[in-house]
Amino acid sequence: MNADFDIRFAIDPISAAAMGTGELRENFLIDDLFAPGQVRWTYSHYDRMAVGGAVPDGSALALDTIKPAGTANFLDRRELIAVNIGEAGTITVDGVDHALGVRDMLYIGRGVKTVRFAGDGAKYYLLSAPAHASHPTTLLQQKNAKRLDMGAGATANERSIYQYVNADSVKTCQLVVGLTQFAPGSVWNTMPAHVHDRRMEAYLYFDLQPDAFVMHLMGEPDETRHLIVRNEQAVLSPPWSIHAGAGTGAYTFIWAMAGDNVDYTDVEKVGMDELL
Predict the structure, then answer these.
(1) How confident is the model over 130-154, as pLDDT tens digits?
(2) Are 38 and 98 found together in one domain?
(3) Is residue 26 part of a domain?
(4) pTM metric for this prediction
(5) Fewest beta carbons within 10 Å, which of 51, 154, 183, 241?
(6) What do you get for the CA distance between the two ends of the chain, in Å?
(7) Could you please report the per-residue DSSP string of 144-191?
(8) What domain count does the chain have?
(9) 8 A C-beta contact, residue 74 and residue 67
């Protein structure tokens, strides 16, 4: 049985600059990730990243393949990181149970045949990219992540970046995943902005109140556009685009990258005076 999926084709910067609000949302926003009792995927042509959600609803959910993967099992040629943004749950990998608390991540390597998501109240954010090698299943927790404190209250961007995937945690083929949370009163993320032409990125915004949203900035530095993003919605960020934003209230976001390397510092910084 194939899981539910959507396909997003790669958009060039010239085409994106000419898009209206509806077209931008259709191509870059994922607003239906999480549905009770379902596994849903958005398959992107940016570095073949797949972004998904699994919400067990009384019974475990299987990780079925999707047609774009072109393989009998989803992970025959892919790797996966599942992030639990709900209540405690369990992911079973080839018959072995792994307990995940809130904000725990589980890395699952290429070649795994069966994965099942369980836990009433658990909600799994899924990220997958093609893999050239097999690496062992590894539990990643926020308390063990590499923490970087950045920004300042005066510029409303005081934040802590948790690098779950780092040199001391787990070896991956492409996936680099982390989480950013803010000091009280700070709302700006990834500002000053940057681009990294060698890697695409996906953002999941969550922990927002029902009436709150994030103004996500995208586009080339001199042709910026915006998306209104609400709780538990995600954005696909092309390699040529900036990816920054400000919230109307408190929020958290998970960022994930796939592409040519896993070097966090391999970016092209954009000066504040360059943004238009």
Answers:
(1) 999 999 999 999 999 999 999 999 9
(2) yes
(3) no
(4) 0.96
(5) 154
(6) 47
(7) GSEEEEE--GGGT--EEEEESSSTTT---SS-EEEEEEE-TT--EES-
(8) 2
(9) no
What is the rounded CA–CA span in Å between residue 262 and residue 95? 30
Tell me the C-alpha distance between 6 and 203, whole Å. 17
Domain-embedded: residue 269: yes
What 8-state DSSP symbol labels residue 274? G
- The answer to whether residues 73 and 108 touch, using CB atoms and an 8 Å cutoff, is no
Range with lowest mean pLDDT among 92-101, 200-209, 253-262: 253-262
* Distance between CA atoms of residues 155 and 153, nearest Å: 5
CATH number of the domain enclosing 234: 2.60.120.10
Residues 6+ apart with CB under 8 A from 99: 88, 89, 90
Q: 15: Cβ–Cβ under 8 A, 6 or more apart, which residues?
A: none
Residue 7 three-state SS:
strand
